[in-house]
Structure prediction request, 470 residues.
Amino acid sequence: MIGVGFFLPLCIQSQQIQPLLTTAQMLQDLDTLASRIQASHPYPTGYAKVEEWQAAMQIAKDSCAKGERDVIEFSLIVGRLLRTMQDSHTQVHVPSLWNQHLNQTRRIIAFKTTGNRVSKDPLHLIPLGAELLTLDGHPFEEIVSKFQPWLIQEKNSLDGMSRIQDQMFPVYFSILYLQQQNHIVIHYKDLLGQEQSIDYPTWGTKEKEKYQRQNKALYEELPKTEFRTDTAYLSIASFAPDKMAKQNRVIHRFFKQCEKKEIGQLIIDLRDNTGGKSTEVEYVMSYLLKDGYNAPHNIIVKRSELSDGRVPWLKHWVVRKMLRLFFRKNEDIQRYVDLMELKHGEVDTLYFNNNMKQKRWIYTGQTHLWVNGMSASAAVNFTQAFQQNQLGTIWGQCIMGNDQGTFGNAAPTQLPHSKITVSIATIRYNYGPDFQFDHPNICPDKRIEYSIENIIHGTDPYWFAIRKKI
Prediction:
C-alpha cells in the first residue's frame, strides 16, 4: 500500500498523452452527430436555415481535413458547428470536459472576471477591477476568441454570451491552457493604469474542494430570502434543485410571511437561473396569479433513442399502464406517457391545460423581476409569463430566450471516436399557440450594467437601482 501510494502520483504525472484524432475519425464523429440531431431534434437545424447548417457542416469538415487534432481542438470545431443552430440546449457538454480535466490532475485558476477585469479573487493577489492583459503569455483577447465556440447561444442572446464568458472564464482558460504548472504569470494593469506582473498560484482538486467546503453558502441551491422593512427579496438559483420539496417549502413560507408582514414591494431574483422544470415555474407563478398558471401551452416532441434515455423506465408498457391509471390527473406525467407511445422518429404536439393554483398567500403588491443574460430556459418561461401578465417591472439584461418559447429536454450523447459528450434538445417548448419562433429575446424595462465601482467595491447595481425607484 505504501509503495502504491508513493508511485501513483508519478504514474499520473507521466501518463501518456492521448493519441490525436485522425481526419477520418473526426469526419465520422461529425456524421454521427448530424445523424443523431436529425433523429432526435424536433427542428434539426434549430433557428438556422438548412443552407446555413449545411455551410457550417462543410466548414467543420474542412477544418478536420487539415490534419490531426486533439480532443479539445475537435470539441471547438463541434462547438462552432452547433452554435449555428442558436439553440442553447444543443451544445458541447463542457462539464464533461471539465471533469476530464480535473480527473487528469490538471490545474485550474480561481479568480473570476467581468469583461477583461478581475471581479473576484479568492487568493486576494490581484486587485479587484484590475485589467487583464496576458495570462501565461496569452493575450486576454486571444483567450476569449479561442473559447468562443463553447459559448452557448439562444438566438441573438448577446448579453447571454457575455455573461457566460464571465461566469465560465476560469473553466475555459483552465481546460485550454493549463496542465501541471503550479503557477502562471499574469500581466495586468492596476487601478492607476500601471502595468504589473504576478506569479499567480494555480489550484488542484484539493485546493478547489477545500475552498468549496469553507464557502458552502456560495453553492447552496435553495432559495435565498430577505425582508427589509416594506421590501421582500426572493432569489431562486434554479428551477431544478436537488431538494425540490425543500425549495417549495421555503417559497411557501416566504409568500406566507409576505402577507403577514404586509409587504408592499417584492423582488424576485432569477439572475444566473439557467432553468429547470416547468412545474417549478408554475409553482412560483401560482403565488402571483389568483387564477394560477399553466406551463407550457404545448410542446413539440420527437421520440428517439435519446428522448427515451431521459425516462428509460417509461419504455415498459406495464409502467405506462400503471401511470395512466394511478396518475390520471397529473398532466405532466400523462404527456410523458403520450410521448413514449409514439413511434421512433414520429413528431407530435402535446398540449397542457391545467393551471396550478394556490388557495392562500397570493401576493398582490408591487413586484419587480431581476434577470440577466444567464436567465435561461425555464427562467425565460417565467419572465415571459411575468411580462405577459403585466405583473411588474423587469430589471437587468436581455435574457437567453424570447416570448414564444425555447427548445428543451436536452439529452446527452457521446461521439464514438472523440468521446466528446454533446447535449441535444429533444422538444420544442412553446408558451402559446402561435408557433412563431423567430422573435427577439426578451429585454428588461430598465437595463442595469455593472460599473467599475461595482466591481472594485463588490456592490450590486440592482439594489442601488431599486432603492432609487422605491
